[in-house]
């Protein structure tokens, strides 16, 4: 009798679910100022509400790898998306800071589960695709969702004059993702095919753990020897993670108090326009990541950190002068910088995993944890210093500290690999 394999989640279903959940989680980007005006809280509380999403995201990322071994990606995505619907609905009806904090934590936790589970589903989808193509899809889920969320929320907020309609719309879109998972959450069953036992010139054959979760394991058949050996040895894990964290800190600025700072500096009141500015920065980052996948790691890191410095200086100059052209420089610099920096750091952590496959899952979890902690810490510190001092001087000062960190990262170098390493 022919054995039948477990049916994977269709690629389009996993991709759409991740995009919609990302969009709902990023919809509040342009709504914080409205909640702050309605509920009367401080800049510290505003950044704390934003940071609570990161507080939920990190345990979601860390724990889902274990949960995937007991529950498949589809089940976890259904549960997480349903929780995201509840959280978005709570944000739409929020009458106090406690509701905002709790709902954002749930949104972050749900996003962490969906990020990990959808990545596993994309890597395990049938028919299999090249790992580089799948990695691109994983990247695009975050970028497309992060771009659509603020823009759509801004448009609906301008039309309705409040924060309820944008979040109700976000809840409705994620509810549609739950329906999609329930209706189109499994591929047709296919006969199991035995794995070849000898050398192969085809794609990498997944090991038992990776076929189920998308996380590499040591049982996978190694790729053909024809694959070129990377010329660089990755830097220490902490240094790689802090490099990614530097660019994510800038993203955190744009996603938290950034729209309010930009609106005040440029005299812009339309939330749709402010959401478009945030989306433009992330879109530039996405274009860079798509087009620069073959750029060498060291060169990508240098280009990224240099562009990030331009973006930091542009943002500070915009706050001090109120000139639109500085805002354009800031958006382009931050977008190009994040694209190159995050891409090169992720490539570098991937090479580290290739060299130490047994530590791959733990290494990736720590990598994202440190990067997102940098994002949360920078934005929360900005809110605290802004309340103690003033938002513009606080932003300029902390941007200067971030710029110094970028300069330090520019001098971190990879070791040269031996030809047969």
Automatic annotation (TrEMBL):
Membrane topology, as annotated: Multi-pass membrane protein
Coiled-coil residue windows: none
Main location group: membrane
UniProt superkingdom: Bacteria
Leader sequence residues: none
InterPro entries named in the record: MFS (IPR011701), MFS_dom (IPR020846), MFS_trans_sf (IPR036259), MFS_Transporters (IPR050171)
Pfam families for this protein: MFS_1 (PF07690)
DNA-binding is among the record's keywords: no
Membrane-crossing residue ranges in chain numbering: 12-35, 47-64, 76-99, 105-123, 135-157, 163-183, 238-258, 270-291, 303-320, 326-346, 367-385, 391-411
Start and end residues of each Major facilitator superfamily (MFS) profile domain: 1-421
Compartments, record wording: Cell membrane
Keyword terms: Cell membrane, Membrane, Transmembrane, Transmembrane helix, Transport
Protein name per the record: Major facilitator superfamily (MFS) profile domain-containing protein
Species, as recorded: Citricoccus zhacaiensis
Taxonomy of the source species: Bacteria, Bacillati, Actinomycetota, Actinomycetes, Micrococcales
């Amino acid at each position: 009798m022919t054995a039948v394999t477990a049916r994977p989640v269709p690629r389009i279903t996993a991709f759409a679910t991740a995009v919609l959940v990302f969009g709902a989680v990023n919809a509040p980007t342009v709504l914080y100022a409205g909640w702050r005006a309605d509920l009367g809280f401080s800049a510290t509380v505003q950044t704390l509400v934003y940071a609570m999403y990161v507080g939920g995201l990190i345990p979601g990322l860390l724990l889902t790898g274990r949960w995937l071994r007991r529950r498949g990606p589809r089940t976890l995505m259904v549960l997480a998306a349903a929780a995201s619907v509840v959280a978005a609905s709570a944000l739409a009806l929020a009458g106090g800071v406690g509701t905002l904090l709790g709902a954002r934590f749930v949104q972050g936790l749900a996003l962490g589960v969906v990020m990990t589970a959808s990545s596993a589903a994309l890597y395990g989808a049938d028919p299999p695709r090249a790992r580089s193509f799948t990695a691109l899809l994983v990247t695009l889920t975050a970028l497309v969702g992060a771009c659509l969320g603020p823009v759509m929320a801004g448009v609906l907020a301008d039309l309705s004059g409040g924060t309820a309609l944008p979040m109700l719309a976000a809840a409705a879109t994620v509810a549609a993702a739950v329906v999609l998972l329930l209706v189109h959450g499994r591929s047709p069953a296919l006969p199991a095919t035995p794995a070849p036992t000898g050398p192969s010139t085809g794609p990498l054959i997944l090991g038992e753990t990776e076929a189920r979760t998308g996380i590499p394991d040591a049982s996978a058949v190694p790729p053909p020897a024809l694959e070129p050996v990377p010329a660089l040895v990755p830097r220490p894990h902490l240094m790689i993670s802090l490099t990614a964290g530097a660019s994510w800190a800038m993203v955190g600025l744009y996603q938290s108090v950034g729209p309010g700072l930009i609106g005040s500096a440029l005299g812009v009141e339309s939330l749709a326009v402010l959401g478009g500015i945030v989306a433009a920065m992330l879109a530039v980052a996405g274009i860079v990541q798509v087009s620069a996948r073959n750029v060498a790691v060291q060169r990508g890191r240098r280009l990224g950190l240099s562009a990030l410095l331009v973006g930091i200086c542009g943002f500070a100059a915009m706050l001090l002068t109120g000139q639109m052209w500085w805002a354009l420089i800031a958006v382009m610099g931050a977008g190009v910088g994040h694209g190159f920096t995050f891409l090169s750091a992720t490539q570098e952590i991937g090479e580290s995993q290739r060299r130490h496959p047994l530590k791959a899952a733990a290494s990736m979890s720590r990598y994202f944890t440190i990067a997102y902690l940098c994002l949360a810490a920078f934005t929360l510190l900005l809110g605290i210093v802004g309340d103690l001092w003033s938002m513009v001087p606080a932003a300029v000062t902390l941007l200067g500290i971030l710029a110094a960190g970028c300069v330090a990262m520019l001098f971190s170098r990879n070791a040269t690999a031996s030809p047969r390493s």
